[in-house]
Amino acid sequence: MDVSRLLDDLNDKQREAVAAPLSNMLVLAGAGSGKTRVLVHRMAWLMEVENIAPFSILAVTFTNKAAREMRGRVEKLMHRSMHTMWIGTFHGLAHRLLRSHYAEAKLPENFQIIDSDDQYRLIRRVLKAMNLDEKHWAPRQIQWYINGNKDEGLRPHHIDTHHDHTQKKMQEIYAAYQDACDRAGLVDFAELLLRAHELWANNPDVLAHYQNRFQAVLVDEFQDTNNIQYAWLRMLCGDNNTIMIVGDDDQSIYGWRGANIDNIQHFLKDFHSPSTIRLEQNYRSTATILNAANAVIANNEGRLGKELWTQGSEGEPVSVYAGFNELDEARFIVSQIKSWFDKGNSLQECAILYRNNAQSRVLEEALLHENLAYRIYGGLRFFERQEIKDALGYLRLVSHPHDDAAFERVVNTPSRGMGEKTLGQIRQTARSQNCSMWQASHLLIHEGGMKGRAANALQTFIGLITDLEQELNQLPLEEQADKAIQRSGLYAMYQAEKGEKAQARLENLEELVTACKQFVVPEEAEEMTPLAAFLAHASLEAGEAQADSDQDAVQLMTIHTAKGLEFPLVFLAGVEEGMFPSQMTNDEPGRMEEERRLAYVGMTRAMQKLFMTYAESRRLYGQDKFHTISRFIQEIPSEYVEEVRLRSTISRPVHNRFSRATSHEAFENSGFSLGQRVRHRKFGEGVVLNYEGSGEHARVQVNFAEFGSKWLVLAYAKLEEA
Ligand code: ATP
Ligand code: MG
């Protein structure tokens, strides 16, 4: 047996981990040290040397994209298909279990997954039903409370309210929300994990079956597991199965969502004689990038402590660019990408990473302006877009008419002349009869509770869904989607809207049909109808790979989404106080350290070249905010940094990268300042980039959104503040 190929491209420490005898193992190591690579090779080793069947291996990754990649790599090493191996995210695996054992999990066979948006709406409805004022019971906070408890494995009756009035009320809302979900057969994301855990806890034979099956469990990005996930793993492994976890405490970035960094310590205590292997060589980044990132993370306390070095070249310094504002920042980033591309490199080697999703819009516009293709991961998720959710709403109702979330979403979209009053009546009946809104509608019509126009409108809607149910039956998936989009009137509605936005929505709806066409029912969903499988897919995958993946495109995503990935050229945008670290950071203990870990994750995505950019002023929620350079840039020793200045013609006041923003000082008597937004009668809106001369000779350079950069004589330009 030739197993050398499984060990060839590994260093000694990595080999030690890959070829270790069957045992519990922790691989603890910094970014880019080959943890994921070790995990993949270990899986191959287990099959080839320990003779463990693919069927008996379960691997957990953090995103569906990572899961797909992992499967591909194992298959490449083994030269065969690994379809019986379970590789997925915690949520994906939990979903798979619940589908197979819906009855034991006390779920209806056709239960639906609801995303966080649906959950939010449902909570609002529950509050309304309980006559609670949203001003006092903020739905977001309740959502947080419910998910937080679920992540800890707590049902309402487990919660100790300490006889506190507010606590008790929260507990009641949680219980009422859960009732509503159970009645309608809806499962939120946190519920997937909790149910899967309860499934095993309450059904020893089901648990025994999986314990017998999965001899080897492997977990990537372990530092971001939460308590319920940990408990689930613990239960699965029992006393006989072995687990390998890999992780990096410095990359724990989901504490705000309940991840528990202490799980690494728990693992060492709870599992039978675990060994720890540390990897110390980084293969990803240049020495400069690595040193810069190491210097930043060194400011955190209470780390488990890891060394990280590289044999790689020193590389270029980390470039820091101070934009006048976010438009200028975006323009700079795009110009750098353009010159990278013009040198013959590919676009997909470039990633723009940001702290918040909302930052993407300006970047997108700058890319569009330069005709550079881009793809967004996460965030503006395809399946989360309004029109897509509308269309999916119809499909959901057709496949499961008791889905109240879907009912609410589409009953009056497009408008069928149904007012709030009618809807209120339906909700009220559903509550009092303890039934779904679908059933309530039938009751209201047939038992005469509703009359006249309202009843007609409702009847039309019910007729439509019933007809669709008949018509879609037996059609291929994409035709089902197409029919639903057309027959529901959604397409016509957006067609009538006109304008670019509506056009984009129509394109998205068309794209949905394409997505259905390309959809391959995954093996675990073979029992389901293609439509049900697609709807589950849409909820779970929510756009992780929305765009056409063959196209060469710049990659845009939040730093959270970039976890585990690597790119030759990386831009970290918006690295300024108030953005990153974010405004909220100061309010919560431990948040700053988590924020710094996020900076570490962001910086260590870069292989060859890292840019960190910020904007001295940024328009947020309609207001210009002035920000200073982020502490995370200042924590990098200056030997690794180079400040990028604008082209030499610029006569803007030179300012040190550590100085406060000076460019907003109004220039002499002109009434305008650098970076300011202005409006020109003919050229529209733009940003002041530069100025020269004085008095009647004063000229100003403005970068117009539509017309690009122009020099104008101030005396004639008649610029106004925008
Ligand atoms: P992260 O913490 O960001 O998830 P990681 O520790 O999982 O990083 P990998 O993604 O597995 O690191 O590896 C980083 C890069 O280094 C990859 O491109 C990988 O192929 C490469 N690499 C890992 N080990 C070796 C090795 N022994 N020889 C050559 N390249 C390696
Ligand atoms: Mg990794």
Annotation keywords:
722 residues, alpha/beta, Rossmann fold, Arc Repressor Mutant, subunit A, 5 domains, 27 helices, 21 strands, binds magnesium ion, ATP-binding, UvrD-like_ATP-bd, nucleotide-binding
> What is the second-level CATH architecture of the largest domain?
3-Layer(aba) Sandwich
Radius of gyration: 28 Å
- Ligand set: adenosine-5'-triphosphate, magnesium ion
Query: Superfamily at the CATH H level of the largest domain?
Result: P-loop containing nucleotide triphosphate hydrolases
Please report the total strand number as a whole number: 21
CATH topology of the largest domain: Rossmann fold
Q: Stretches where pLDDT falls below 50 for ≥5 residues?
A: 543-547, 647-666
Helix share of residues?
Answer: 40-55%
Structural class: alpha/beta
* Tally of individual domains: 5
Which term fits the overall shape? Answer: globular
Tell me the fraction of residues in β-strands, as a range.
5-15%
Instruction: Tally the helices.
Output: 27
Distance between the termini: 72 Å
Report what the structure shows.
By secondary structure, this protein is α/β, with parallel strands linked by helices. The chain folds into five domains: 4-99 and 194-281, P-loop containing nucleotide triphosphate hydrolases (Rossmann fold), CATH 3.40.50.300; 112-184, Arc Repressor Mutant, subunit A (Orthogonal Bundle); 294-379 and 548-644, P-loop containing nucleotide triphosphate hydrolases (Rossmann fold, 3-Layer(aba) Sandwich); 382-541, PCRA, domain 4, CATH 1.10.486.10; 677-721. Strands 9, 10, 11, 12, 13, 14, 15 and 16 form an eight-stranded mixed β-sheet that branches. A six-stranded parallel β-sheet has the order 3-2-6-7-1-8, sandwiched between helices. A five-stranded antiparallel β-sheet has the order 20-19-18-17-21. Residues 543-547 and 647-666 have low confidence and may be disordered. It binds adenosine-5'-triphosphate and magnesium ion. Residues 35-36, 220, 564 line the site of magnesium ion.
